[in-house]
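re: ur question from earlier - yeah i can do the single chain one, its not a big deal. heres the input i used so u can compare w yours
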Amino acid sequence: MNAQVPVTSRTEAAICHMHIDALTSMQPEITGVLISTIDGFEIASKLLSDLSAAKLAAMTSSLLALSGAMCTETGSGACRDLVIDADTGRVLLMELSCRKQDLVLAVLCTDKVTLGQVLWAVRDCREALSRRLNVL
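and the output i got, formated as tokens:
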């Protein structure tokens, strides 16, 4: 069985990389960013060398599916964002709506980050990226 890898244009990937670079330059406590498809394929990333973008994309897909099921089961509505608060850092997972295909924005932060500030920056990045990708 062959997995279908999504087709992303070089222009789309370049736009994603541009937004990743802008986000990481504005927020020094962000240690990594991944943009992947909702079904777990990497589109663009800027991660520490010991992290696998493919594994992270697959886990992101699974976590969003689980959080969506949890929200449905509890009657909380549609799940938009997932925040994981760990001992030495935070992981933010956010759906990124695009006309062509739904994407996921995963952001890794240190534990020194101010959650409200990074949420605002990542949500702003998500909206700007969505606008740019929907124009193509």
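The radius of gyration is 14 Å. not sure if urs matches, ping me
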